[in-house]
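To close the chapter, one final illustration. This time we ask the reader to focus less on the individual chains and more on the assembly as a whole: which components sit near each other, and how the overall shape emerges from the parts.
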Amino acid sequence: KAGVTQTPRYLIKTRGQQVTLSCSPISGHRSVSWYQQTPGQGLQFLFEYFSETQRNKGNFPGRFSGRQFSNSRSEMNVSTLELGDSALYLCASSLPEGGANTEAFFGQGTRLTVV
Amino acid sequence: GDSVTQMEGPVTLSEEAFLTINCTYTATGYPSLFWYVQYPGEGLQLLLKATKADDKGSNKGFEATYRKETTSFHLEKGSVQVSDSAVYFCALSANFGNEKLTFGTGTRLTIIP
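The assembled structure is written out below.
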């Protein structure tokens, strides 16, 4: 069974540009969550999508957005990039059942560097 | 809001030493608790979990018990190996259709042969 796949693995962008990151969840998983990992702030929740709907959102500015497609694949977009957006972006998928949490499976992440 | 407080690192131990990494949490209701491990250049892997009070999660020699009275979920291993060197994260999830994980700051563990 294939794991969570994130593309690309590495990305270098210039300040002011925008970027789109992609996440393919494990087959059958309907929930996809995104996290930002930085040395200073640690792991912070960005948002979660379930059945193409954003179900939960963290405290990030509107420059950070996402979406989920009917096949559960998800993308996140960051517009007007700032140096502080440099981070490892992690995607996790899970199969919620009846409200009880199940294991979240993480991808290897996309390392974004803004110069 | 929900929060996780985790023992500061880094932690350096000799092989076969006993390991404890402390984790306490603040949450409303009855969260699920997790320990995740991150190896260099990798994403996070679930190490163990517990979904209700007094549950003990265990995997690969690691154990943690969900203690509601002390709001704690300390990670322990009786004899660590060099291959256990990694960053360990304690996390909670509020349940009830909310897949958001709240993480602690992480503890970097280095095991010396």
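Chain A has no helices and eleven strands. Chain A touches chain B through 27 residues (CB under 8 Å). With these observations in hand, you are ready for the problems at the end of the chapter.
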